Amino acid sequence: MAITRDKKNTLVAELSASLTASKMAVFAYYRGLNVADVQELRAAARAAGVTITVVKNRLVRVALESIETYKGVDTSALTGQLLYAISDTDEVAPAQVLSTFAKTHPQLEFAGAFSGEGKLLSANDVKSLAGLPSKNQLIAEVVAQLLSPVHDITNALSGNLHNLLDGVAAKATN
């Protein structure tokens, strides 16, 4: 059943707003996935703050052309049955969600991505991004590195204090 022009305009407007606010929009082939699989993917994506959208590529092209950041971007990779994973909070989350899902559903294959800066990324670039730790993990690692000298000094001082007290206790018993 064909959708009306008004519905198409609404879809393009929603997609334009979503892409404008996004930090990363990853698109992937989903041929071979059934409805239950796609619902499972949507649930996993929702938990990570990622929106999964299935829309005609032609409407995506129209939405991209209406956004100043994406004007003139190469859209030749938008062919076949694609789903779009979009996040407005984390650059890596869409790639990670799709990568995790693809481990148990090999029918899902990366096709590419659009960065928040308006650049087209290849499927290999997206796979590389999926392997990166999340923003929160990176922050935790930096904080741990910054605190490690403090922990080292505390451990050294407490170790020496214990040795001193042990020596005093041994001297007192003699």
Content of β-strand: 5-15%
Largest sheet: 5 strands, antiparallel
> What order do the helices and strands follow?
HEHEHEHEEHH
Provide the helix percentage.
55-70%
Shape: elongated
Give the radius of gyration: 25 Å
What count of helical segments does DSSP give?
6
- Count of discrete domains: 2
Average of the residue pLDDT scores: 85
- Biggest sheet strand line-up: 2-3-1-4-5
Q: How many runs of DSSP E, i.e. beta strands?
A: 5
CATH architecture of the largest domain: 2-Layer Sandwich
Q: CATH homologous superfamily of the largest domain? A: Ribosomal protein L10, N-terminal RNA-binding domain
Secondary structure category: alpha+beta
Poorly predicted runs are none
Annotated CATH topology of the largest domain: Alpha-Beta Plaits
End-to-end separation: 96 Å
Report the top-level CATH class of the largest domain.
Alpha Beta
Key features?
174 residues; alpha+beta; Alpha-Beta Plaits; 2 domains; 5-stranded antiparallel sheet; 6 helices; 5 strands
